[in-house]
Amino acid sequence: MNKTSLIDELKKECEVCQDCELGKTRTNIVFSSGDENTAKAILIGEAPGANEDLTGTPFVGKAGKFLDKLLEEVGISREKDLYIINTVKCRPPKNRVPAKAEKDACRNFLIRQIEIINPKLLIFCGNTALKSFVSNKGSFSSVRGNLLEVILNEKAYKGIAIYHPSYLMQYATKEQIEMTKDDLSQIKSIIEE
Ligand code: URA
How many CB atoms neighbour CB 136 within 10 A? Predict the structure, then answer.
């Protein structure tokens, strides 16, 4: 089966999923954005917010627009180069951080998506995504920008963590914005290798 058929099959499973409490309150599952056939990297965010829940597409609200601006500045195409998912596919009520049980319920879907896409790089966008895949590597700020090795189902992937756009919009220093642009430039070089 080709990538698109495998992804379509997985999406159908997700659409009827009730493996955790979030299934009861979602409007739509937020499965992914991007093209499974051209994507070079998978960007993993935290969780869908209100706009994502309504549209079924990740990163379409304020944080998404900020992310789009950064990507455009460094010349990464969101549509062609990135496949975007979150640690959970349904919106946590009041935008709270997803609980461990909710992330665990979604994990198998994420791993199957990653295996089908087989990206050159996993981008952990924020601490929730990083902690879901990489344990005990120190503080987020000391890990971001470093090239990591992530083993999933005995397969090794390259990984890198970047600041989450919601954090950057609200709290970041100019220096942290510049660091993020440097991290994105590094990502661009890796996916173009
Ligand atoms: N924040 C996330 O982490 N993911 C989204 O899809 C939107 C906002």
Answer: 5
How many whole angstroms from 168 Cα to the centroid of ligand 1? 13
Residue corresponding to tokens 């220096």: 175
DSSP 153: T
> Does residue 56 carry a pLDDT above 80?
yes
Q: How much is the pTM? A: 0.97
For residue range 127-142, list pLDDT tens digits in order: 999 999 998 778 999 9
Closest CA to 151 of 100, 115, 104, 105: 115
Query: Is 80 exceeded by the pLDDT of residue 125?
Result: yes
Q: Which residue lies with its CA nearest to atom 7 of ligand 1? A: 59
User: How far from 118 is each of 3, 25, 133, CA to CA, in Å?
Assistant: 10, 31, 16
Sign of the four-CA dihedral 71, 73, 74, 79: positive
CA 46 to ligand 1 centroid distance, Å:
6
Any idea where the domains of the chain sit in the sequence? 3-191
Q: Which atom of ligand 1 is nearest to the CA of 126?
A: 3
Q: 49 CB less than 6 Å from ligand 1? A: yes
Sign of CA dihedral 182, 171, 31, 155: positive
The Å distance, Cα 1 to ligand 1 centre, comes to 30
Architecture of domain 3-191: 3-Layer(aba) Sandwich (3.40)
